[in-house]
Design a protein that fits this description.
single chain; five-stranded antiparallel beta sheet; 2 helices; 5 strands; about 25% helix
Length: about 100
């Protein structure tokens, strides 16, 4: 069951000729017969909720058990020299630094 899981979606971008992260969020409800998920999306800037949407689940979704796991997966896509800076900024924005 995917309800409660966090996710990233990917999309092929012809401009860069590769798959890139598209959406991030959490599954709030799921209809397996229609393969539709009611999701809460999160901002790329600060991770805050940015709206609830109905999305079709496709093979390009990657699921995570926790928000931290999802965040670390995103950070790992960044150039190495930026990763620690982003981790520190994330802590400040969440008020844990």
């Amino acid at each position: 069951m995917i309800i409660g899981k966090y996710f990233h979606t990917f999309e092929w971008r012809k401009e860069t000729d590769r798959e890139e992260l598209c959406w991030q969020g959490q599954v709030k409800d799921y209809d397996p017969e229609k393969n539709l998920a009611y999701v809460r999306l999160f901002s790329w800037m600060d991770g805050a909720p940015s709206g609830d949407h109905l999305k079709k689940v496709t093979d390009d979704w990657v699921f995570y058990e926790t928000a931290d796991e999802m965040n670390e997966a995103w950070i790992a896509t960044l150039p190495y020299e930026k990763q620690e800076h982003v981790r520190e900024m994330s802590k400040i924005l969440r008020g844990v630094a």
